[in-house]
Amino acid sequence: xxxxxxxxxxxxxxxxxxxxxxxxxxxxxxxxxxxxxxxxxxxxxxxxxxxxxxxxxxxxxxxxxxxxxxxxxxxxxxxxxxxxxxxxxxxxxxxxxxxxxxxxxxxxxxxxxxxxxxxxxxxxxxxxxxxxxxxxxxxxxxxxxxxxxxxxxxxxxxxxxxxxxxxxxxxxxxxxxxxxxxxxxxxxxxxxxxxxxxxxxxxxxxxxxxxxxxxxxxxxxxxxxxxxxxxxxxxxxxxxxxxxxxxxxxxxxxxxxxxxxxxxxxxxxxxxxxxxxxxxxxxxxxxxxxxxxxxxxxxxxxxxxxxxxxxxxxxxxxxxxxxxxxxxxxxxxxxxxxxxxxxxxxxxxxxxxxxxxxxxxxxxxxxxxxxxxxxxxxxxxxxxxxxxxxxxxxxxxxxxxxxxxxxxxxxxxxxxxxxxxxxxxxxxxxxxxxxxxxxxxxxxxxxxxxxxxxxxxxxxxxxxxxxxxxxxxxxxxxxxxxxxxxxxxxxxxxxxxxxxxxxxxxxxxxxxxxxxxxxxxxxxxxxxxxxxxxxxxxxxxxxxxxxxxxxxxxxxxxxxxxxxxxxxxxxxxxxxxxxxxxxxxxxxxxxxxxxxxxxxxxxxxxxxxxxxxxxxxxxxxxxxxxxxxxxxxxxxxxxxxxxxxxxxxxxxxxxxxxxxxxxxxxxxxxxxxxxxxxxxxxxxxxxxxxxxxxxxxxxxxxxxxxxxxxxxxxxxxxxxx
Length: 721
Prior knowledge:
Elements: H1 4-12, H2 25-28, H3 54-60, E1 63-65, E2 76-83, E3 87-88, E4 91-92, E5 97-105, E6 108-115, H4 120-131, H5 137-144, E7 150-151, H6 161-175, E8 178-186, E9 192-194, E10 201-204, E11 216-218, H7 220-226, E12 247-252, E13 258-262, E14 287-289, E15 294-295, E16 311-314, E17 324-326, E18 334-340, E19 346-353, E20 360-368, E21 384-391, E22 396-401, E23 426-429, E24 438-441, H8 444-453, H9 457-460, H10 466-472, H11 474-480, E25 489-494, E26 500-504, E27 534-540, E28 549-557, E29 571-576, E30 582-586, E31 616-620, E32 631-635, E33 641-647, E34 654-659, E35 673-681, E36 687-695, E37 712-718
Parallel strand pairs: 1-36, 11-17
Antiparallel strand pairs: 2-37, 3-4, 5-6, 6-8, 7-14, 8-9, 8-10, 12-13, 13-16, 14-15, 16-17, 18-19, 19-20, 20-21, 21-22, 22-28, 23-24, 25-26, 26-27, 27-28, 29-30, 30-31, 31-32, 33-34, 34-37, 35-36
């Protein structure tokens, strides 16, 4: 089945005729200056929207030079609002800025920024330039070499000089992660600039430990933290939590708070928990430092792993608010989040787990919303039910409660998309319930035997607070009850008709995590596994946020146009502009960007991802004559990812985060570039070669020769606006 534009239009159907949500007066007054009025940028491979004949495509794309810059359409420009190391409150602007939340109040606003993770090479190269101090990288790396770069620093004596070095490096890394709040004001020219205000602050990976306030938790998981008789590790803090990190995607509530998603927390603290929800000891994930790898930053500080992997709510307007982790929303590698708040209905929160085999979830509050704009709605996160989505091949689906009485009914290994049949695996809570973490099951028979032994989730989590333990171990609990393993759900948006649009980034499996359901996530030609991703629509039965059933449909597939894709690969963050149209950025793995390949009959979607060039920003109109098309608006700098797009209320400014420029090769030295050959496919199916010149490393955003790259937030505007 080939989706492409025809499938997109079928998906839109009646929703294409829907009026967008009410627009602010400032928008209505500037209908002629829409951001979407642009000429698509030159893109490194043939697209249906380039309006070229196949012969013209071959001539124009025979050579292509990749730019180490944020490439925008003619008539648009950008300025840097903030970059790594800039002062922010009593701290600084952190590393690898991701999700951006803009809460406007007239001509002032708060921009909340997530800081996700450390890209070791450019972080190490640029740390002194960005922050004016050095770290003992070389000394610690030399000392760790005999131990292959890893040590349980938590167990080292306080007098050990290696522990002091590790503490300095780990502290620096965790202080560079978390969340930042930037107060802004509108300039006379209509753009935005930073302003001094008491709300300016950082919430870091060590808030509470290294100054600032502790974070807290709500819901059944908080009861586990307070339990005095844990199976596993106890940090002695009860419901107090040190910091937040791995903050990737997020969402803004209708009442002006921000949800920040803790994603790959397992890189810094142990993920596995015992059947009562308690954490394993910090030594289960040692501190690690090698030439290319840095992790286990929480080890030396004794951080309890079960306190990370949550959705954190922050009120940017309250300078004393350091965040609450709402445990009813589940603990997993959070990414996507959208909040549906309608008066008289329960609150619904949609969120995804960004791992290969991760699930899509919905939280439904116990009580209804009264006023969707009231900050009292935050209390609705504290009681309700968490569900996981089971997608059926016929386009229907149901929400499975993660509750003690839910039957154990896992998906079978034979249903998983794999490269080789022998790689099929399903991970379930360990069958020896004194053991923490997952157990791998390789055959359908083994999974069926497991389901006969454990009848319900309550049998798997038999302690005094089974609901809290289930929420803390949400991913494995969802596996156990047959929630569909999906293809890395990285973002969601709510459309005006109440439907949920979900970006699934990649359907490629990973032996350590498993894979997605091959009956659901199929490429444009029906192939599995499929790397290039999808955008999917989910519609609740009767359009009720609390519905237990839904229908789903593929909106678009990534991939090369000649293979049925829309021309992009690995869709990630989504955004709706003020006119109700969709924007999307891509998340091609750094290791795949601009990587040459040979096109053969047995080529697969993973091997050919290098054709798409740098990560990019796309416009996907949902109505009008361009509906069903995907138009490239921007290309990112070298080895970067574009994240967190958000439009100002007047639709005149696009805030865009650029993270990890130079992630693989670090600082670009003396303008170094390499040329490689890429076999591309023209609109008529003819294969032709492109000579592509690719910068080696990055100097963005400064642009000066040999200058270390820095993550930064850019403001994009129409020139002369």
